[in-house]
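LAB NOTEBOOK - FOLDING QUEUE
OPERATOR: T.R.
BATCH SIZE: 2
PURPOSE: Compare the predicted C-alpha coordinate outputs for two unrelated chains run back to back under identical settings.
PRIORITY: normal
REVIEWER: second-year student, initials M.K.

ITEM 1
FIELD SEQUENCE / FIELD STRUCTURE:
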Amino acid sequence: MSLTGGNRNDVTQLLPLLDKVPAVAGTVGRPRRRPDALLADRGYDHDKYRRLLWARGIRPVIAERGHPYGSGLGIFRYVVERTIAWLHGFRRLRIRWERRDDIHEAFLGLATCLITHRHVRRLC
Protein backbone atom coordinates (compact mmCIF):
# COMPACT_ATOMS: atom_id res chain seq x y z
CA MET A 1 0.00 0.00 0.00
CA SER A 2 1.19 3.48 -0.70
CA LEU A 3 0.18 6.60 1.16
CA THR A 4 -0.12 9.88 -0.70
CA GLY A 5 -1.15 13.37 0.25
CA GLY A 6 -4.82 14.12 0.66
CA ASN A 7 -4.66 16.71 -2.11
CA ARG A 8 -3.58 14.19 -4.79
CA ASN A 9 -6.04 13.08 -7.44
CA ASP A 10 -6.97 9.41 -6.99
CA VAL A 11 -6.62 8.56 -10.66
CA THR A 12 -2.89 9.30 -10.54
CA GLN A 13 -2.46 6.32 -8.19
CA LEU A 14 -4.51 3.85 -10.26
CA LEU A 15 -1.63 2.13 -12.06
CA PRO A 16 0.78 2.05 -9.07
CA LEU A 17 -2.03 0.46 -7.04
CA LEU A 18 -2.57 -2.21 -9.69
CA ASP A 19 1.17 -2.91 -9.75
CA LYS A 20 1.08 -3.68 -6.01
CA VAL A 21 -1.73 -6.24 -6.16
CA PRO A 22 -0.31 -9.38 -4.55
CA ALA A 23 -0.56 -12.81 -6.13
CA VAL A 24 -3.85 -14.59 -5.42
CA ALA A 25 -3.50 -18.28 -4.68
CA GLY A 26 -6.27 -20.81 -4.82
CA THR A 27 -6.54 -22.71 -8.08
CA VAL A 28 -3.93 -25.03 -9.49
CA GLY A 29 -1.37 -23.32 -11.66
CA ARG A 30 0.33 -19.98 -11.72
CA PRO A 31 -1.12 -17.53 -9.15
CA ARG A 32 -3.04 -14.60 -10.58
CA ARG A 33 -1.42 -11.17 -10.32
CA ARG A 34 -4.19 -8.98 -11.69
CA PRO A 35 -7.98 -8.81 -11.52
CA ASP A 36 -10.29 -9.66 -14.40
CA ALA A 37 -12.09 -6.32 -14.17
CA LEU A 38 -11.75 -2.97 -12.42
CA LEU A 39 -14.87 -1.22 -11.12
CA ALA A 40 -14.55 2.54 -10.77
CA ASP A 41 -16.65 5.68 -10.49
CA ARG A 42 -16.88 8.66 -12.85
CA GLY A 43 -13.64 10.15 -11.56
CA TYR A 44 -11.71 7.49 -13.47
CA ASP A 45 -13.62 7.97 -16.75
CA HIS A 46 -10.89 8.78 -19.25
CA ASP A 47 -9.91 7.01 -22.46
CA LYS A 48 -6.23 7.00 -21.45
CA TYR A 49 -6.88 4.88 -18.35
CA ARG A 50 -9.31 2.61 -20.18
CA ARG A 51 -6.62 1.88 -22.81
CA LEU A 52 -3.97 1.27 -20.14
CA LEU A 53 -6.25 -1.17 -18.34
CA TRP A 54 -7.08 -3.05 -21.56
CA ALA A 55 -3.34 -3.23 -22.33
CA ARG A 56 -2.81 -4.97 -18.97
CA GLY A 57 -5.60 -7.45 -19.68
CA ILE A 58 -8.03 -5.84 -17.23
CA ARG A 59 -11.59 -5.06 -18.33
CA PRO A 60 -12.52 -1.52 -17.18
CA VAL A 61 -16.05 -1.19 -15.75
CA ILE A 62 -16.13 2.56 -15.25
CA ALA A 63 -19.22 4.74 -14.93
CA GLU A 64 -19.32 7.31 -17.72
CA ARG A 65 -19.64 11.04 -17.18
CA GLY A 66 -22.69 12.70 -18.61
CA HIS A 67 -24.81 9.54 -18.42
CA PRO A 68 -27.62 9.23 -15.88
CA TYR A 69 -26.95 7.46 -12.62
CA GLY A 70 -28.01 3.88 -12.24
CA SER A 71 -25.19 2.04 -13.97
CA GLY A 72 -25.40 -0.65 -11.29
CA LEU A 73 -21.91 0.00 -9.89
CA GLY A 74 -23.39 1.38 -6.67
CA ILE A 75 -24.13 -2.14 -5.47
CA PHE A 76 -20.43 -2.95 -5.44
CA ARG A 77 -19.28 0.51 -4.35
CA TYR A 78 -21.47 0.30 -1.25
CA VAL A 79 -19.16 -2.36 0.18
CA VAL A 80 -16.15 -0.07 -0.20
CA GLU A 81 -17.91 3.03 1.15
CA ARG A 82 -19.25 1.07 4.12
CA THR A 83 -15.80 -0.25 4.95
CA ILE A 84 -14.30 3.24 4.80
CA ALA A 85 -17.08 4.43 7.12
CA TRP A 86 -16.16 1.65 9.58
CA LEU A 87 -12.52 2.74 9.48
CA HIS A 88 -13.57 6.35 10.11
CA GLY A 89 -15.21 5.10 13.29
CA PHE A 90 -11.70 5.03 14.71
CA ARG A 91 -10.91 8.65 15.51
CA ARG A 92 -7.21 8.20 14.98
CA LEU A 93 -7.83 7.16 11.37
CA ARG A 94 -10.51 9.75 10.62
CA ILE A 95 -7.98 12.55 10.90
CA ARG A 96 -4.42 11.52 10.27
CA TRP A 97 -2.40 12.74 13.25
CA GLU A 98 0.74 10.69 12.68
CA ARG A 99 3.50 12.11 10.52
CA ARG A 100 5.08 8.73 9.89
CA ASP A 101 3.22 6.57 7.42
CA ASP A 102 4.36 3.31 9.01
CA ILE A 103 2.58 4.24 12.26
CA HIS A 104 -0.56 5.22 10.34
CA GLU A 105 -0.50 1.90 8.47
CA ALA A 106 -0.07 0.06 11.79
CA PHE A 107 -3.20 1.74 13.17
CA LEU A 108 -5.00 0.90 9.92
CA GLY A 109 -4.06 -2.77 10.32
CA LEU A 110 -5.16 -2.74 13.95
CA ALA A 111 -8.50 -1.19 13.02
CA THR A 112 -8.99 -3.83 10.32
CA CYS A 113 -8.32 -6.58 12.86
CA LEU A 114 -10.81 -5.06 15.31
CA ILE A 115 -13.50 -4.71 12.64
CA THR A 116 -12.98 -8.32 11.56
CA HIS A 117 -13.07 -9.53 15.18
CA ARG A 118 -16.39 -7.73 15.76
CA HIS A 119 -17.97 -9.35 12.72
CA VAL A 120 -16.65 -12.83 13.52
CA ARG A 121 -17.92 -12.48 17.09
CA ARG A 122 -21.42 -11.77 15.72
CA LEU A 123 -21.32 -14.97 13.68
CA CYS A 124 -20.38 -17.20 16.63
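ITEM 2
FIELD SEQUENCE / FIELD STRUCTURE:
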Amino acid sequence: MEMVNALGRRKSAVARIFVTEGAGKITINGKDLQDYFPSSILQYVVKQPLMKLDVLEKYDIKVNLDGGGFTGQSQALRLAIARALVKINADDKKALRSEGFLTRDAREVERKKPGQPKARRRFQFSKR
Protein backbone atom coordinates (compact mmCIF):
# COMPACT_ATOMS: atom_id res chain seq x y z
CA MET A 1 0.00 0.00 0.00
CA GLU A 2 1.31 3.43 -0.92
CA MET A 3 0.46 6.67 0.86
CA VAL A 4 -3.24 7.61 0.93
CA ASN A 5 -4.26 11.18 1.64
CA ALA A 6 -7.61 12.67 2.68
CA LEU A 7 -9.13 15.93 3.85
CA GLY A 8 -11.54 16.60 6.73
CA ARG A 9 -13.19 19.84 7.78
CA ARG A 10 -15.29 20.98 10.76
CA LYS A 11 -16.20 24.60 11.57
CA SER A 12 -13.00 26.45 10.56
CA ALA A 13 -10.63 23.52 11.19
CA VAL A 14 -8.97 21.68 8.29
CA ALA A 15 -7.21 18.32 8.65
CA ARG A 16 -4.99 17.01 5.85
CA ILE A 17 -3.83 13.45 6.55
CA PHE A 18 -1.40 10.98 4.99
CA VAL A 19 -1.92 7.29 5.83
CA THR A 20 0.74 4.60 5.39
CA GLU A 21 1.05 1.06 6.72
CA GLY A 22 2.80 0.98 10.08
CA ALA A 23 2.44 0.44 13.81
CA GLY A 24 -0.44 2.78 14.65
CA LYS A 25 1.51 6.03 15.27
CA ILE A 26 -0.53 9.24 14.86
CA THR A 27 1.56 12.42 14.43
CA ILE A 28 -0.19 15.81 14.40
CA ASN A 29 1.82 18.88 13.33
CA GLY A 30 5.02 17.09 14.39
CA LYS A 31 3.65 16.11 17.82
CA ASP A 32 2.33 12.81 19.13
CA LEU A 33 -1.47 12.41 19.52
CA GLN A 34 -1.22 12.37 23.35
CA ASP A 35 0.82 15.60 23.33
CA TYR A 36 -1.40 17.46 20.86
CA PHE A 37 -4.74 16.37 22.41
CA PRO A 38 -4.09 15.86 26.16
CA SER A 39 -7.81 15.18 26.74
CA SER A 40 -8.67 11.48 26.59
CA ILE A 41 -12.11 12.34 25.16
CA LEU A 42 -10.58 14.08 22.13
CA GLN A 43 -8.13 11.20 21.65
CA TYR A 44 -11.10 8.83 21.67
CA VAL A 45 -12.94 10.96 19.07
CA VAL A 46 -9.90 10.83 16.76
CA LYS A 47 -9.52 7.04 17.12
CA GLN A 48 -13.24 6.17 16.70
CA PRO A 49 -13.13 5.15 12.98
CA LEU A 50 -9.95 3.10 13.56
CA MET A 51 -11.48 1.30 16.55
CA LYS A 52 -14.74 0.65 14.66
CA LEU A 53 -12.81 -1.21 11.93
CA ASP A 54 -10.29 -2.69 14.42
CA VAL A 55 -7.25 -1.30 12.53
CA LEU A 56 -5.82 0.86 15.34
CA GLU A 57 -2.35 -0.75 15.20
CA LYS A 58 -2.23 -1.15 11.40
CA TYR A 59 -1.68 2.36 9.96
CA ASP A 60 0.65 5.29 10.64
CA ILE A 61 -1.08 8.64 10.21
CA LYS A 62 0.68 11.97 9.62
CA VAL A 63 -1.61 15.01 10.05
CA ASN A 64 -1.45 18.70 9.19
CA LEU A 65 -4.09 20.45 11.31
CA ASP A 66 -4.94 24.09 10.82
CA GLY A 67 -7.57 26.53 12.17
CA GLY A 68 -10.39 26.18 14.64
CA GLY A 69 -10.36 25.03 18.23
CA PHE A 70 -9.48 21.67 19.71
CA THR A 71 -12.99 20.19 19.40
CA GLY A 72 -13.37 21.20 15.75
CA GLN A 73 -9.86 19.96 14.99
CA SER A 74 -10.50 16.55 16.53
CA GLN A 75 -13.77 16.13 14.61
CA ALA A 76 -12.13 17.27 11.35
CA LEU A 77 -9.41 14.69 11.93
CA ARG A 78 -12.01 11.96 12.57
CA LEU A 79 -13.70 12.76 9.23
CA ALA A 80 -10.36 12.73 7.38
CA ILE A 81 -9.38 9.35 8.90
CA ALA A 82 -12.77 7.86 7.96
CA ARG A 83 -12.42 9.13 4.38
CA ALA A 84 -8.90 7.70 4.10
CA LEU A 85 -10.06 4.30 5.40
CA VAL A 86 -12.77 4.22 2.72
CA LYS A 87 -10.14 5.02 0.05
CA ILE A 88 -8.05 2.09 1.32
CA ASN A 89 -10.97 -0.37 1.47
CA ALA A 90 -14.33 0.59 -0.07
CA ASP A 91 -16.08 -2.28 1.75
CA ASP A 92 -15.72 -0.38 5.05
CA LYS A 93 -17.90 2.50 3.85
CA LYS A 94 -21.18 1.02 5.12
CA ALA A 95 -19.85 0.47 8.66
CA LEU A 96 -18.39 3.98 8.88
CA ARG A 97 -21.48 5.60 7.36
CA SER A 98 -23.78 3.88 9.89
CA GLU A 99 -21.76 5.44 12.76
CA GLY A 100 -21.93 8.88 11.09
CA PHE A 101 -18.16 9.22 10.58
CA LEU A 102 -18.45 10.07 6.87
CA THR A 103 -20.96 12.92 7.30
CA ARG A 104 -19.49 16.44 7.07
CA ASP A 105 -21.00 18.56 9.86
CA ALA A 106 -21.64 21.78 7.93
CA ARG A 107 -22.61 23.98 10.89
CA GLU A 108 -20.60 27.20 10.91
CA VAL A 109 -20.63 30.25 13.18
CA GLU A 110 -23.19 32.79 11.98
CA ARG A 111 -21.73 36.21 11.28
CA LYS A 112 -22.40 39.21 13.52
CA LYS A 113 -24.89 41.66 11.99
CA PRO A 114 -24.37 45.44 12.13
CA GLY A 115 -26.52 47.29 14.66
CA GLN A 116 -26.81 44.22 16.87
CA PRO A 117 -24.61 42.99 19.73
CA LYS A 118 -24.38 39.43 18.31
CA ALA A 119 -25.61 37.44 15.31
CA ARG A 120 -29.24 37.21 16.44
CA ARG A 121 -29.34 39.07 19.76
CA ARG A 122 -30.94 42.51 19.48
CA PHE A 123 -30.39 45.47 21.76
CA GLN A 124 -33.15 45.80 24.38
CA PHE A 125 -36.20 47.60 23.01
CA SER A 126 -37.14 50.76 24.87
CA LYS A 127 -40.65 52.11 24.28
CA ARG A 128 -39.89 55.48 25.93
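REVIEWER COMMENT (ITEM 2): The chain has one domain: 4-99.
FOLLOW-UP: none requested
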